[in-house]
Design brief:
It contains 15 helices and eleven strands. It is α+β, with helices and mostly antiparallel strands and 432 residues long. The protein has a single domain, classed as Beta-lactamase (3-Layer(aba) Sandwich). Strand 9 and strand 10 form a beta hairpin. Helix 4 packs across helix 10. The longest helix is centred in the middle third of the chain and has 15 residues. It is globular, with a radius of gyration of 20 Å.
């Protein structure tokens, strides 16, 4: 029973959850590429002490099957090994910047820590930032009804007329998700069924919203203590940005965020990433029999179409959570307001705000694509940034801020946070 409860309530930061390879047996990258694949490439010069040793062990845990020498990283939210993984930590005490594993299981070329990666749903922070900037400029209000901007889209749902921009930002709209879905009429349903022909298909934002509308609202919009992650809502935010600014979503974010902060290695992708970006090969899940490197980024658009690097993300996180991108302190305060107080799959150590998660003192998000899983966080009290990612859709990097933060002595373990979630505690007590 406990195992079923954990499987039901694991909280990642998804673009899409895929189970098509569940029957396949996981393997570590050392099995495919030999012991050389466990070489750690370091871009730092930290002394070998207890902390760096623990972080190096964590890198091994991300790409190897558990053993006597490489223990299971987490019982709550256990994940299979990834082909390669990166951990980046930037703090006043120094910078840890290392990678393990490979960028391509065919060549077994070692993964470079500086390799750009698709950041998935971390893109939602860019989208949220622009929406709040537009509010400061008087071009919209987050309390506005979405129907003021997207009347045809909202009309697709009975009850949708009550949805506000704030509800889109906070995932409290009840809008169903076209990606996190098992409905065969949706993109997520096609992937769930193993239809990999969908990987390269292009979609407009209007098509993505219409696809989600084959499903009704999950709950009445704005219901207290109700929350449901919705990529659909962030697609609508991208549409609103285009309507209000008169620019494409990509141009608006590039001008307002990327160029303003000098993020030289960050780009929003319209469809397929350029080969010049030098991305690693991407895989669904161990044993890496499905290569998803040909994924069309239009399928995520304003919910997840960015590529970046750990160093760029550190600059962005510090700006995003310090208020640098805004004119008024109340804007940052509104952005950091808890989205759904009382929601029983969250706790005081883990909850969604408006365009980001609170993770036991860290502020950030997380991102999953069909071929990467990442987690980002900034800890203002210690000025510490954590960025971690792997080139597999299911990896321990999905909750890496908690895992890494615990090694640094900043956060509790994810397992202890997970067990304290009201829904989990209630289920566990009822199963005993």
């Amino acid at each position: 029973m406990k195992r079923a409860i954990l499987a039901m309530l694991i909280l990642a930061f998804p673009l899409v959850m895929v189970t098509a390879q569940e029957a396949a047996e996981s393997i570590g990258i050392d099995t495919l590429c030999g012991e050389n694949a466990l070489t750690i490439t370091a871009l730092d010069e930290l002394p070998e002490d207890a902390t760096t040793q623990a972080l190096d062990l964590m890198l091994n845990q991300m790409v190897m099957l558990p053993s006597d020498t490489v223990p299971l990283l987490s019982a709550a939210g256990s994940k299979p090994p990834a082909p390669g993984a990166v951990i980046f930590i930037d703090s006043p005490e120094g910078r840890y910047y290392r990678a393990i594993g490979v960028s391509d299981i065919g060549s077994c070329a070692l993964l470079d820590p500086e390799t750009p990666f698709p950041i998935g749903s971390n893109t939602k922070m860019f989208t949220a930032a622009v929406i709040y900037q537009l509010q400061e400029e008087g071009l919209l209000s987050t309390s506005d009804l979405v129907s003021q901007y997207l009347p045809d889209e909202i009309a697709l749902w009975d009850g949708g007329e009550a949805i506000t921009i704030d509800m889109l930002l906070s995932h409290t709209s009840g809008l169903p998700d076209y990606l996190n879905s098992q409905d065969p009429r949706t993109l997520g349903g096609r992937y769930e069924a193993g239809d990999w022909s969908a990987l390269t298909e292009a979609f407009t934002s209007e098509e993505l919203v219409a696809m989600a509308a084959v499903q009704p609202l999950l709950f009445e919009s704005g219901t207290p203590a109700q929350w449901a992650y919705s990529n659909t809502g962030y697609i609508m935010l991208g549409q609103i940005i285009e309507q209000v600014t008169g620019q494409s979503y990509i141009n608006a974010v590039t001008e307002r965020i990327i160029n303003r902060l000098g993020l030289a290695h960050t780009v929003l992708v319209e469809d397929f990433p350029s080969a010049e970006l030098g991305l690693a090969r991407q895989y669904l899940v161990s044993p890496f029999t499905i290569d998803t490197s040909g994924w069309n980024f239009s399928q995520a658009w304003s919910a997840g179409n960015a590529i970046s690097t750990p160093e760029d993300m550190a600059v962005f996180l510090r700006a995003y959570y310090s208020g640098t991108l805004y004119q008024h302190p109340e804007t940052l305060a509104a952005m950091m307001t808890r989205a759904a107080p009382g929601y029983n799959a969250e706790s005081d150590d883990f909850y969604y705000m408006h365009g980001g998660y609170y993770k036991a003192g860290f502020l950030g998000h997380g991102g999953q694509t069909l071929g990467t899983e990442s987690d980002l966080g900034y800890h203002p009290q210690t000025d510490t940034v954590i960025v971690t990612w792997a080139n597999s859709s299911e990896a321990f990097t999905g909750l890496g801020v908690f895992h890494i933060g615990h090694v640094l002595g900043i956060t509790p373990t994810w397992d202890s946070v997970f067990i304290s979630l009201p829904a989990v505690a209630q289920q566990l007590s009822g199963s005993q």
